[in-house]
Design brief:
The complex is a heterodimer of chains A (about 120) and B (about 110). Chain A has about 120 residues and is mainly β. Helices cover about 0% and strands about 55% of the residues of chain A. Chain A is built from no helices and twelve strands. Chain A is globular, with a radius of gyration of 14 Å. Classes of the chains: A mainly beta (about 120), B mainly beta (about 110).
Amino acid sequence: AQKVTQAQTEISVVEKEDVTLDCVYETRDTTYYLFWYKQPPSGELVFLIRRNSFDEQNEISGRYSWNFQKSTSSFNFTITASQVVDSAVYFCALSEGYNQGGKLIFGQGTELSVKP
Amino acid sequence: ETGVTQTPRHLVMGMTNKKSLKCEQHLGHNAMYWYKQSAKKPLELMFVYSLEERVENNSVPSRFSPECPNSSHLFLHLHTLQPEDSALYLCASSQATAMNEKLFFGSGTQLSVL
């Protein structure tokens, strides 16, 4: 069965520290997509990244980077030199199967608190 | 103007009330969704509409009734809710319902059922 696990419920760091948010997924499909979303206190989830199952290249976007490893079914997210504005709940999500768009399977989220 | 707008932001209702949640998207998308976010639980997909037709009903109780009059508007009609229905209800939209579509979310309606 498909599942997304974010084992870290809450993480607290001090500004400028690096922090990695873990995501482990389960799926029987060979074609799938993985996502990360950020949910700030205002409530709306904001799309951060999408990765398909055939592309294991790591990606860097500014202070954000993602490490996709199919061998361990993981899609971890690292924030370098964290800032207070990074405080939010971060969700990892899985989308699989043709004609299954929008049916994201979410992890439980990791609440990140960055203290000044 | 934000891409996806939800009203109201907060709603308190009794178990015998009838209320509606509204969602409007200004992105020209063809698909809209309702998700439920309860405390300590992952987001749960409730309904999917594509081109105004419901394509998914994720075993949601009949006390939740969606309506999609056009591709820009989505409603969630509520009646005889239970306290366990208290949650953040998020609307989202996407260009289509393909597997790789990214979703654009509204800020949600925080619902409390007394």
